[in-house]
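To illustrate the input format used throughout this study, we show a single complete record. The first block contains the structure-token representation of the backbone; no residue identities are included at this stage. The design step must infer an amino acid for every position from geometry alone.
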């Protein structure tokens, strides 16, 4: 038997959202915060064209995509670092800053991959409980020690959908020592409509220790292809680029992401429709008697405590897959109107049962 790292014995496995099917064959996957829309024809076309070239390695520097991202956001290409999904970029960030004994601070509950990546990197997780479902930035600042190397601020937060606002974030950033990297995980940025929520790209330039994490998986609908990126000042971006496994972002993914940026107007119209559905879903849930935190992401959060798994099972019986966190609550992605209606009917029936 080969010897494995001891940490593997205690690490939880990442639980990805799975589809479920009702007895009468209905299936609505609202468990992974994906786009409910099929890929755009222009994107499928770009993938098909790129497919004729897959006997060659991809461009290791993903030059065309890097330049397209840089142009889209008005940043120098040197500020962009790509990875196979933003979760891989997050892993690269851990590779960039971690050493045994290094501490990484994040809110809890937040994105499930943070503890996993910390364990893998040999870093120590410092979890700061949410306050009223929202990051408690003051407590997070207080949790920073001389061993802290990195802090994640997930904005909007997965799974609660809550946000930290500009003044609060600014005060926090002013308190974080310059040798601690602050990662603004903005995987759901395109769904934010609250004007008082900082867009990380407007603040990182003046802050050498801030990095912004974005993804093509959600609003841009490319979850299956795995493309994410970081935008930060040159020293951070180039350090992260060094940790990339060669050719990590494959040729089809690069082509699809370039095509998605070219079709951005259409994709952002879809985001707008999801945002409208989000309002409808939340308001309907509130009318049913649920407490639903205000959400700026493409999902809603229900704190269900001990009823969480029963709720998930009741939804599954109707073909609706939600994302339960046992004894805490469930996260439900905003899907198509039909999927949302089915979910809302299941939620109403559960409440009235
Ligand atoms: N950050 C957050 C907050 C997320 O919720 C997710 C996806 N669940 C990711 C990053 C990673 O997304 P991807 O790797 O698909 O880019």
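Output of the design step:
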């Amino acid at each position: 038997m080969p010897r494995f790292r001891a940490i593997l014995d205690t690490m939880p496995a990442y639980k990805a959202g799975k589809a479920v099917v009702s007895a009468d064959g209905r299936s609505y996957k609202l468990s992974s915060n994906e786009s409910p829309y099929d890929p755009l024809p222009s994107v499928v076309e770009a993938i098909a064209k790129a497919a004729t070239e897959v006997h060659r390695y991809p461009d290791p520097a993903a030059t065309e995509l890097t330049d397209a991202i840089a142009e889209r956001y008005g940043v120098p290409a040197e500020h962009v670092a790509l990875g196979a999904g933003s979760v891989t970029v997050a892993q690269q960030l851990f590779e960039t800053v971690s050493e045994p004994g290094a501490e990484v601070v994040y809110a809890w509950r937040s994105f499930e991959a943070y503890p996993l990546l910390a364990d893998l990197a040999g870093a120590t997780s410092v979890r700061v409980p949410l306050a009223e479902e929202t990051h408690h930035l003051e407590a997070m600042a207080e949790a920073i020690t001389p061993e802290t190397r990195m802090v994640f601020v997930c904005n909007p937060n997965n799974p609660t959908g809550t946000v930290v606002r500009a003044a609060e974030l600014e005060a926090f950033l002013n308190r974080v020592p310059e040798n601690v990297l602050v990662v603004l995980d903005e995987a759901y940025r395109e769904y934010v409509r609250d004007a008082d929520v900082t867009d990380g790209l407007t603040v990182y330039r003046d802050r050498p220790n801030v990095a912004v994490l974005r993804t093509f998986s959600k609003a841009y609908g490319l979850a299956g292809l795995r493309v994410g990126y970081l935008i930060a000042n040159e020293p951070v971006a180039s350090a992260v680029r060094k940790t990339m496994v060669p050719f990590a972002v494959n040729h089809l993914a690069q082509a699809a992401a370039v095509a998605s940026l070219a079709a951005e107007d259409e994709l952002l119209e879809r985001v707008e429709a999801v945002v409208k559905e989000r309002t409808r879903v939340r308001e309907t849930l509130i009318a049913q008697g649920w407490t639903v935190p205000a959400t700026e992401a493409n999902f809603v959060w229900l704190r269900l405590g001990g009823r969480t798994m029963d709720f998930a099972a009741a939804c599954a019986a109707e073909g609706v897959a939600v994302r339960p966190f046992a004894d805490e609550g469930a996260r439900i992605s905003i899907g198509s109107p039909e999927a949302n209606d089915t979910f809302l009917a299941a939620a109403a029936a559960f409440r009235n049962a």
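Structural context for interpreting the output: The mean pLDDT is 97. The longest strand covers residues 148-154.
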